[in-house]
Amino acid sequence: MQSESRSDRLQGEVYHSGKMDGSTLKWIALITMLIDHIGFVFFSRGDNILFVVYTVCRQIGRISFPLFCFLLVEGFCHTRDVKKYILRMTGFAFLAEIPFDLLFRGKIVKLDAQNVLFTFVLGLVTLLLVKKNALWDIKTILTFLVMGGLAYFFRVDYTWFGIALILVFYYFRERPWERTMVAGAFLIWEPVSLLALLPIACYNGERGKGGKYFFYWFYPLHLLVLWMIKTEMRLL
Cβ of 68: how many Cβ atoms within 10 Å? Predict the structure, then answer.
């Protein structure tokens, strides 16, 4: 009974005192991700000043992933249909894979790395399996080991670390200060990513304006556009 009541609290309303809604956090995540990808695609082969631009872009991009993980947890806790949420994310993950491979691997299909939406799919399945269990419950631990192992085996972006960070945001959702401390400990290996915890701390718990499908479509479409620009530049 205790695990069930905890699940209800985790998926219920949590007090937020910030000023930023979910759409604002999504825009921050999308823009920092876009800057990261622009730097990787167009400046990675440069030297001197170009290398500086590349480094700055890549560092800015470290902000995006923690924000996406946090928003994924919020989406999980507020969605009316978790299974439909997972299916939708899975569909866009497969849709994004070809432009992802074209842009970052130069081939239509390349299985040595999968795009980050597959990480989110595994994260959502993990949350679905552990939602009625406490953090240190044996089922939670085993589920993390299995799903983290799958993330590593299939080489999805951020592998097992992504699953772990999603669980951190889930289990410390109703304890903001502890969430910041634990997530900060996870992110310390990429110090710039700690900046993501600032807008997260300013979250007001509201979804905000903006069509949700725009944010889904943005990922595969921006990969495709960057690949087209990159290809066109090579032809010039």
Answer: 27
| pLDDT single digits (tens) 64-111 | 999 999 999 999 999 999 999 999 999 999 999 999 999 998 889 888
Show Cβ contacts of residue 2 under 8 Å, excluding neighbours closer than 6 positions: 134
Query: In angstroms, rounded to a whole number, what is the distance separating the alpha carbons of residues 162 and 182?
Result: 14
Burial of 8 (0-12, 13-18, 19+ CB in 10 A): exposed
| Cα radius of gyration (the chain) | 18
How far does Cα 128 stand from its chain's mean position? 17
CB atoms within 10 A of CB 49: 9
DSSP assignments along 41-63, one per residue: HHHTT--THHHHHHHHHHHHHTT
pTM of the predicted structure, to 2 decimals: 0.91
Mean pLDDT estimate for the chain: 91
Q: For residues 117 and 72, what is the distance between their CA atoms, to the nearest angstrom?
A: 11
How large is the greatest C-alpha to C-alpha distance in the chain, in angstroms? Answer: 66
Q: Which two tokens stand for residue 87?
A: 């299916």
Instruction: DSSP for 154-221, please give it.
Output: TTBTTHHHHHHHHHHHHHTTT-HHHHHHHHHHHHTTSGGGGGGHHHHHTB-S---SS-HHHHHHHHHH
